[in-house]
């Protein structure tokens, strides 16, 4: 546990658990005996002339103790100062005792630096070796005597002082020892020694590294919680910033709303004022005109009165009575005066000076004032992006939100299909009004993109439209090509086609293994298929239901119509793209026929991949290793070829005439039925006595064999031993008019094993 133990007594290692039985705690006397034994070990090398300084230097260098020497000296000096301050009487003793105390308190310091130890003991370096040895023996004897007397008799110190000094030394050594375990009860690191003998003996402890890892994990969890709280507070702060902005925007809209309404009210009042002022001016004009006309009439009446008065006065002043009477009777003046006096004079005013009391109609203004609403028009909603699996082939679920406290009565949702054409803006727009912040739109086209935008409405008006978002409906269910399915005992290759114009993201194949009990169905899924075909590994002699779904951003389509696959044998189909123009495939898909051979190189349409010289066709076999077996039913009088070929076998040659095809040929000679097994135009000399009517073909990739059998009598005909570099496909050809019937899905017969 300490580096000093390397040089101390071996009994120090008794603190390990395996050596604890029967020992207990070490007593003070044991410690003193260990020091005495240590001093004896130091003395022996000196007695035999051992080079102590060299050995100590090597050991110190080996264990890295050079750097600890100065630190130990400082600790020792501090300890001596404590002892001197506590026991002043010890300072009155002879100086040699101090050096002796130093030497016995740290036995390892002598080993680390013998020269320093010699200096502390007051021995000159120039002294001879004999003197050094004698003094060392004397000191060692004195040391052993002192420890054996259980005290320092030369200094006169008491047993209490000695015990106290030893305890302090042990405490200092314990402080220097590093903690290596963790007390779970006290939650502090401790030494293993304390667990065994100290106050932590009955406490639960753990290894310090595991405790550190546990605490670090707890700290990490707390840091994660702090990070979550920081993220939450950042979100809250961001939301508060948005609210601040919304408040400012609402204030601006409210201020504008008030200004518009109050301007309208002021405009109405100004209009009423102008109307009333104009009516008042018109009344004034009419009154003044009436009074002026009455005034003019009064003036005319006064003038007439004055004129008649003057004429009457002249007549009255006439002195000649005859002339007076003559003039009075025959003068028009008298008649005019009578007529004038007959007229009544209207002395009343034609109009009153008071104006009509006018009442201003402010009902319109009141209506305007009442129409001022404290609730402004709402702000634009925010439409959400499309959520996964939120669509079907004919419907979409659209969601949006309003990140403000505006009052909304309803929402107006608009949408139209997205088109890549130039006149996409002319697409018909559809509008719906909804109360909630979501809506499910039906009657849509499958796998089609639609553009949506929404506005909020209330009594004050309609909000600006939201940003436009593009949603897409789920695809239509794919259609599995039943006649294009290829399978064997351990796998199946399933092909399908999409019914949508737009491409989809991926496909998912779901397969169910049918057990003996019809209700017991085990379902598995293969997801993320990018193309319209997949090779599925299956178990032999089982029945599977397989269906396909199409996937896009909108979700998953409905299941396709399931197909039933039996893994009892190999199933393939005839590739009509490779068929010669004269070769016909009947309705069952596995019977080929040829009616005429006069002009094999006829003018019928020829495809790029079809045979042109040999009236042949290739089948599409599943590209899977293992064994594949099928049978061909032939007629005895038909010449034919059947076997396998690479997909890129030449279309202008005959099967078996090149190195990319292997086939069995039947030809009829005048003497017999001849059978050839051709590859690169070569055939072995084989005679078949029983013409086969049903030919079994076994393709074994693992054993590198292609074998032909007479299936009716389980007779082996021939085997090609070759290692196919690529996957091959069944091939069939007719050299005379006739029919070949292919049988697939047959379990490999046991007699095919060679």
From TrEMBL:
InterPro entries, A to Z: B30.2/SPRY (IPR001870), B30.2/SPRY_sf (IPR043136), Butyrophylin_SPRY (IPR003879), ConA-like_dom_sf (IPR013320), E3_ligase_FN3/SPRY (IPR050617), FN3_dom (IPR003961), FN3_sf (IPR036116), Ig-like_fold (IPR013783)
Keyword terms: Coiled coil
Keyword Glycoprotein recorded: no
Full protein name: FSD2 protein
Species classification: Eukaryota, Metazoa, Chordata, Craniata, Vertebrata
Biased composition (Polar residues): 104-121, 145-165
Region (Disordered): 19-49, 104-175
Any coiled-coil regions, as ranges: 263-294
Pfam family, one: fn3
Endpoints of the signal sequence: none
Keyword RNA-binding attributed: no
CDD domains assigned to the protein according to its UniProt record, in alphabetical order: FN3
SUPFAM superfamilies for the chain: B-box zinc-binding domain (SSF57845), Concanavalin A-like lectins/glucanases (SSF49899), Fibronectin type III (SSF49265)
Ranges annotated as biased composition (Basic and acidic residues): 19-35
Gene3D superfamilies in the cross-refs: 2.60.120.920, Classic Zinc Finger (3.30.160.60), Immunoglobulins (2.60.40.10)
Fibronectin type-III domain mapped to chain residues: 381-477, 478-570
Record domain B30.2/SPRY: where: 552-751
UniProt xrefs under PROSITE patterns: B302_SPRY, FN3
Highest taxon above the source species: Eukaryota
């Amino acid at each position: 546990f300490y580096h000093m133990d390397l040089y101390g007594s071996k009994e120090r290692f008794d603190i390990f658990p395996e050596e604890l039985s029967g020992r207990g705690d070490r007593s003070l006397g044991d410690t003193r005996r260990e020091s005495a034994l240590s001093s004896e070990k130091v003395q022996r090398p000196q007695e035999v002339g051992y080079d102590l300084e060299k050995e100590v230097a090597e050991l110190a260098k080996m264990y890295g103790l050079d750097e600890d020497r100065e630190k130990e000296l400082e600790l020792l000096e501090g300890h001596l100062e404590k002892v001197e301050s506590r026991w002043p009487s010890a300072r009155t003793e002879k100086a040699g005792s101090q050096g002796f105390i130093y030497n016995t308190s740290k036995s390892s310091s002598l080993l680390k630096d013998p020269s320093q130890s010699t200096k502390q003991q007051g021995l000159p370096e120039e002294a001879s070796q004999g003197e050094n040895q004698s003094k060392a023996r004397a000191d060692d004897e004195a040391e052993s005597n002192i420890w054996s007397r259980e005290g320092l008799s030369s200094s006169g110190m008491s047993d209490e002082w000695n015990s106290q000094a030893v305890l302090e030394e042990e405490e200092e050594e314990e402080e220097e020892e590093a903690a290596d375990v963790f007390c779970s009860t006290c939650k502090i690191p401790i030494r293993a020694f304390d667990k065994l003998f100290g106050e932590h003996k009955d406490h639960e402890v753990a290894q310090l590294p595991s405790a550190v890892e546990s605490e670090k994990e707890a700290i990490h969890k707390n840091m994660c919680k702090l990070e979550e709280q920081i993220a939450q507070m950042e979100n809250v702060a961001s939301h508060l910033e948005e609210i601040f902005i919304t408040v400012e925007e609402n204030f601006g809209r409210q201020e504008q709303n008030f200004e518009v309404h109050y301007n309208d009210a002021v405009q109405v009042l100004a209009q009423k004022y102008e109307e009333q002022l104009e009516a008042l001016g018109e009344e004034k004009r009419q009154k003044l005109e009436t009074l002026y006309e009455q005034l003019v009439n009064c003036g005319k009446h006064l003038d007439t009165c004055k004129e008649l008065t003057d004429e009457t006065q002249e007549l009255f002043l006439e002195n000649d009575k005859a002339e007076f009477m003559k003039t009075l009777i025959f003068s028009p003046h008298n008649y005019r005066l009578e007529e004038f006096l007959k007229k009544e004079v209207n002395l009343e005013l034609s109009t009153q000076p008071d104006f009509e009391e006018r009442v201003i109609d402010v009902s319109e203004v009141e209506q305007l004032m009442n129409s001022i609403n404290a609730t402004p028009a709402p702000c634009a909603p925010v439409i959400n992006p499309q959520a996964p699996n939120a669509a079907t082939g004919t419907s979409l679920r659209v969601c949006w939100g309003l990140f403000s406290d505006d009052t909304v009565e309803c929402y107006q949702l608009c949408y139209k299909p997205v088109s890549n054409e130039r006149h996409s803006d002319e697409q018909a727009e559809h509008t719906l009004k909804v109360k909630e912040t979501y809506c499910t739109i039906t009657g849509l086209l499958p796998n089609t993109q639609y553009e949506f935008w929404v506005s909020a409405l209330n009594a004050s008006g309609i909000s600006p439209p939201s940003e436009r978002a593009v949603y897409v409906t789920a695809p239509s269910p794919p259609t599995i090509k039943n006649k294009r399915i290829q399978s064997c005992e351990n796998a199946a290759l399933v092909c399908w086609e999409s019914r949508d114009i737009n491409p989809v993201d991926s496909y998912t194949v779901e397969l169910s293994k049918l057990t003996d009990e019809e209700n017991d169905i085990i379902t598995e899924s293969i997801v993320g298929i990018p193309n319209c075909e997949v090779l599925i590994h299956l178990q032999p002699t089982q029945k599977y239901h397989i269906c396909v779904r199409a996937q896009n951003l909108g979700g998953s389509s409905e299941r396709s119509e399931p197909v039933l696959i039996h893994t009892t044998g190999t199933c393939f189909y005839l590739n009509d793209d490779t068929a010669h123009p004269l070769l016909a495939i009947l309705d069952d898909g596995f019977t080929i026929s040829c009616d005429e051979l006069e002009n094999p190189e006829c003018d019928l349409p020829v495809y790029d991949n079809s045979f042109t010289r040999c009236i042949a066709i290739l089948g599409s076999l599943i590209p899977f290793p293992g064994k594949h077996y099928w049978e061909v039913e032939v007629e005895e009088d038909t010449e034919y070829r059947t076997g396998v070929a690479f997909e890129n076998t030449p279309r202008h040659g005959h099967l078996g005439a090149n190195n990319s095809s292997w086939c069995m040929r039947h030809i009829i000679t005048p003497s017999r039925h001849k059978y050839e097994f051709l590859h690169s135009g070569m055939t072995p000399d084989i005679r078949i006595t029983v013409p086969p009517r049903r030919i079994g073909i076994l393709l074994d990739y693992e054993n590198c064999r292609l074998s032909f059998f007479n299936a009716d009598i389980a007779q082996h005909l021939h085997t090609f031993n070759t290692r196919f570099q690529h996957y091959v496909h069944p091939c069939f050809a007719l050299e005379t008019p006739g029919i070949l019937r292919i049988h697939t899905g047959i379990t490999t017969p046991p007699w095919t094993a060679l």
